[in-house]
């Protein structure tokens, strides 16, 4: 019996020796894997986003200036037409006849003027020999003046008739895109008619956006102190999520504040050769400083927050994790600008922070592209 107890004790002792302690198991566990990125100096210019609206530089409804029946429509709807292009032709027979009639009246008036000149010259010769009275001379001069005035009047009428004749050709006042025509050949049009077609100029084009008065005044004050430049790059995010390939320039800032919204209207101009920007489109406007701003930054996802503020998990010497308090100045393009708390090159955890705590050793891998 005693021998059996001794044997059992020996076996139990061997089993306990074979089972590793919990401490040993913890020491043998693999270090948790995390993704890190170095704090780096980069050009992160200050920027601000606004909602804007695309506005055509020129957009007019083309109207008839004289009455008549349309003889031709010389464009296709949606076409780009140059300035001076013939859009519509109004029947012009009556207007040509009016011009010819006045031209005939002018020739008759010129003949009457020549006769009045002869009568005046004859009267002046006769008055020198006391053959006629001074009243006859005065009458001859008056008739000549009347004939000359008639020519002036008729020339004025001819200019009006020529102008009306020119209005029978309805032309594009500027280069633009035609809309849908509201009339067709044979329609009777006139000054009282609605717009025949809308012509819109799309290149270049404007984008207008409201800026809160507080933001506008703060920017002005900083510009006066030399903290930021007076100019800014203007970028657009289109409704499909793509970035417009061309940058714009600000060319107008309103001199008054919209009372209902307490905003200042700002306008930028963009090249639009491919007509990607259409009149009335809502876009996202980003203003970015033109001058370089070299700052220390880390990926925005590395920033953690608690009741004491912002912090990051830093992988330091020996791959040990350290909690580091930081001051985040601002964020831009997915990066957090660090004013205090980090040095260039220090590695911060961007992925896997939930698996670590200060003081443990980790298996750190550099973020792709980092």
Question: What are the salient characteristics of this protein?
Answer:
single chain, 370 residues, alpha+beta, conserved putative lor/sdh protein from methanococcus maripaludis s2 fold, Helix Hairpins, 3 domains, eight-stranded antiparallel sheet, 5 helices, 22 strands
Describe the structure.
It is a single chain. By secondary structure, the chain is of the alpha+beta class. The protein folds into three domains: 88 residues, conserved putative lor/sdh protein from methanococcus maripaludis s2 fold; 100 residues, Efflux pump adaptor protein, beta barrel domain (Elongation Factor Tu (Ef-tu), domain 3, Beta Barrel); 76 residues, Orthogonal Bundle (Helix Hairpins), CATH 1.10.287. Helices cover 28% and strands 36% of the residues. The chain has five helices and 22 strands. The strands form four sheets. Strands 3, 5, 8, 10, 11, 12, 13 and 14 form an eight-stranded antiparallel sheet that branches. Strands 1, 16, 17, 18, 21 and 22 form a six-stranded mixed sheet that branches. A hairpin with a 2-residue loop joins β16 and β17. 20% of the residues are buried.
């Amino acid at each position: 019996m005693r021998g059996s107890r001794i044997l059992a004790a020996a076996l139990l002792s061997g089993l306990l020796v074979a089972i590793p302690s919990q401490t040993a198991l913890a020491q043998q566990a693999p270090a948790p894997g995390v993704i890190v990125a170095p704090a780096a100096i980069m050009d992160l210019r200050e920027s601000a986003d606004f909602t804007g609206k695309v506005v055509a530089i020129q957009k007019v409804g083309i109207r008839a200036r004289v009455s008549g029946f349309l003889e031709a429509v010389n464009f296709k709807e949606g076409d780009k037409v140059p300035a001076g292009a013939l859009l519509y032709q109004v029947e012009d027979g009556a207007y040509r006849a009016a011009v010819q009639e006045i031209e005939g009246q002018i020739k008759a008036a010129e003949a009457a003027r020549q006769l009045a000149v002869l009568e005046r010259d004859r009267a002046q010769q006769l008055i020198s020999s006391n053959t006629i009275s001074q009243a006859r001379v005065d009458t001859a001069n008056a008739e000549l003046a009347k004939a000359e005035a008639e020519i002036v009047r008729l020339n004025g009428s001819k200019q009006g008739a020529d102008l009306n004749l020119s209005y029978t050709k309805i032309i594009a006042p500027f280069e633009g895109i035609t809309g849908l025509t509201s009339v067709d050949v044979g329609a009777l049009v006139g000054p009282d008619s609605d717009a025949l077609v809308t012509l819109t100029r799309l290149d270049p084009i404007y984008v207008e956006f409201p800026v809160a008065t507080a933001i506008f005044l703060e920017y002005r004050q900083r510009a006066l102190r030399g903290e930021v430049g007076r100019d800014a790059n203007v970028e657009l995010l289109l409704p499909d999520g793509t970035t417009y390939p061309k940058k714009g320039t600000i060319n107008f800032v309103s001199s008054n504040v919209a009372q209902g919204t307490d905003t200042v209207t700002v306008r930028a101009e963009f090249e639009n050769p491919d007509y990607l920007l259409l009149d009335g489109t809502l876009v996202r406007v980003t203003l970015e400083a033109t001058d370089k701003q070299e700052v220390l930054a880390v990926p925005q996802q590395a920033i953690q927050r608690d009741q004491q503020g912002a912090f990051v998990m830093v992988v330091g010497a020996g791959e040990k994790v350290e909690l580091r308090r930081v001051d985040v100045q601002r964020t831009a393009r997915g990066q957090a600008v660090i004013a205090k708390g980090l040095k260039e090159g220090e590695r911060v955890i961007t992925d896997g922070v939930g698996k670590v705590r200060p003081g443990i050793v980790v298996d750190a891998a550099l973020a792709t592209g980092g």
